[in-house]
Amino acid sequence: MAGYIGYRVGGIMGLIVALIATALPTVLLMLALLTPLINSKITQESKE
For this UniProt entry, which segments traverse the membrane (predicted)? Predict the structure, then answer.
């Protein structure tokens, strides 16, 4: 939906900006939240 609205308002550039603005926060949060989890699993495996 954001991509469509971005395209209607700003053309191709609006589409790209809208998609990045929608997806990037989710990706960054996933990386920030999963990194400690993965690191803790690696640490636990090395203790065994």
Answer: 12-38
pLDDT at 41: 79
pTM: 0.67
Residues present in the chain in total: 48
Record the tokens describing residue 15, joined without a space: 């589409």
Query: Dmax over Cα atoms in the chain, in whole Å?
Result: 56
Domain locations in the chain as residue ranges: 24-48
Q: What angle (nearest 5°) sits at the alpha carbon of residue 35, between those of residues 32 and 37?
A: 120
Q: And the tokens for 47?
A: 């203790």
Average pLDDT, integer, range 16-30: 96
